[in-house]
Amino acid sequence: MSLSASHLLFPVPHSQIKTGFTTAHAVDVPSIHQVHLSDSALGVHKVSSGTTHTLVRPPVPPSTDSDEHTWDALFPAGSVNPGNKSAPPGGFGFYVHGPPEFARALREEAPREVLMSYAVMFEDGWEWRKGGKLPGICKRPSLAACLPLSVV
Question: Which InterPro entries match (predicted)?
Answer without folding.
Answer: Polysacc_lyase_14 (IPR048958)
